[in-house]
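### Sample
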Amino acid sequence: MMLLKTKNLKFIIKTLVLLFLCQPLFAQDGNTNPKTKFKVDGVAGVVGDYLILESDIDKFLFDIKSQGQSSVDITPCQVMGKLLEDKLLAHHAIQDSIVVNDAQINSEVDQIIDRFAQQLGSIQKVIEYYKKDNIAELRAELFAIRRDIRLSESMNEKIITSVDVTPDEVKSFFESIPEDELPTFGVELEIAQIVIEPKATDEERQRIIDRLNSFRSDILDNGSSFATKAVLYTDDAASRGDGGFMTINRKTPLVKEFRDVVFGLQEGEVSEPFETEYGFHIATLEKIRGDKLEIRHILLIPEVGKAQEEEAKDKIERIKKRIEEGELTFDQAAREFSDEKETKYDGGVLVNPVTLDKRFELNKLDPTLYTKVNNLKDQEVSLVFNDPSRTGKTRYKILTVKNRLEEHKADYSKDYIKIKDLALREKQIKAISEWQKEKIEETYIKVNGDNRDCEYVSNWLKK
């Protein structure tokens, strides 16, 4: 148990998203003053081929404050220890030939430069401020910083990826915690919902299908360009500029209906119109490159009128009334009427995407959801509200709290998933600690100046 407490800083700083390292040069928060400068006043340490500057420590602490976080309990010595850890990870990621995604890093660099330009007024001002000769030089420096971050993260993931805990280990971990040190968990809710979506009329749906069929015929019979039609007509803004083009593989997150169609196509084939939760599509397979498919698609979304929206709202109001009058249970109504396939067959019960169980910590709920359920009593039904989908489609919902667990000390049976997560975290810390101990001995490391007076958890001074 002592290891978890001693090394807790690793996770505190991780939750601050490596504010300096992940947001280089200066914090990117909108409230940050981009003209705050730091003096480069010496080398604080060396890890392999990496230097840590004294100013890096100051920037880290400054960025924590600029993001609205308190740095009172985080000392320069702790930050130095964190920077040493990250440089060690990055150094050995290179030694282990770990490959990072350059395209992803370039995209991140673009976002950083755009943010800097918004803060300073223009890209040219960013270049001048950092005393670079041109944008290419600035990009190269940012790319190197972001690449080191990705290397560090990838090496860390490699160390812990195979670490797991057994039920016996979870139980032993829990029993090792003194009674007066058991963590307290806040109020948790089990929430269920019913979703009713306005439906386009049969005539509108058929109009969309007919239009897609006309596109398909024009492409197959007259040699028209699929890409041009996508640019002109698709409702998918994300792929419109590329003529509906996408590169996908089996791991690409796609809705089932879309995946089933595109992976069943032959090169050059154009699909019949098919429906997904987003609307109606046609798709074509242009090229197979190894495990990747190069495809294009056109999406058309049927229009839903005010009459259909009112009809959907009236329907869910009637459902709510039947539940409140005892004619139906919430569970029965969800199974019979809800339009959300992911939850309806489990009575509308929501699954926490972070923990994968059915409990949500009240103080971590999305603010919109929080206001809807905070004051609900068990089994009480919320007011009807519109919660638009990812694509902006109207969705009417009602919610209920199936169960409320008040703030409480950790209980092995009630809180098994959370306790397992803590046990796993401690085991991961041990794995990283053992890896660090081995790599520190075989890596060139030098800590300079006052940083040698720090009390580090790891043997960075090689005493």
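The chain has three domains: 2-175+417-453, 186-199+305-408, 202-300. This sample (Periplasmic chaperone for outer membrane proteins SurA) is used throughout the tutorial notebook.
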